[in-house]
Design a protein that fits this description.
Blueprint: H1 3-11, E1 17-24, E2 27-34, E3 37-40, H2 54-64, E4 72-76, H3 80-83, E5 95-97
Parallel strand pairs: 1-4
Antiparallel strand pairs: 1-2, 2-3, 4-5
Length: 104
């Protein structure tokens, strides 16, 4: 999903949830769920949009607007356990956040 589509869906109340995911250090992605379908937020050229911080991702969403009733979560993925041969965690490791930076 591209930024303009996210903006349209946010303002028309079509978003189920957003997950800001920390991939590695300063690489973040946004996963948008609409009607049960999960999309990754993309730049206009079709590449994955990667804000450089959690704050940058939250600022982007604040600037779009229309997020008042959208659940927003932060997920920090850690590949260490899988790299060591352990099973991947299947528990919901998301933390509910607000765009103001305080946990809900």
């Amino acid at each position: 999903m591209k930024l303009n589509e996210l903006t349209e869906r946010a303002h028309s109340g079509q978003l189920d949830e957003i997950v800001i995911e920390s991939m590695e250090g300063d690489i973040f992605t946004l996963r948008i769920t609409t009607q049960g379908e999960i999309d990754t937020l993309l730049n206009e050229d079709g590449t994955i949009l990667t804000p450089q911080s959690l704050n940058a991702a939250k600022t982007l969403l604040r600037d779009i607007g229309g997020m008042d009733n959208v659940p927003i979560y932060f997920r920090h993925s850690v590949a260490h356990d899988e790299m060591m041969g352990s099973e991947a965690e299947t528990a919901d490791d998301r933390m509910s956040i607000t765009l103001e930076g305080q946990a809900r």
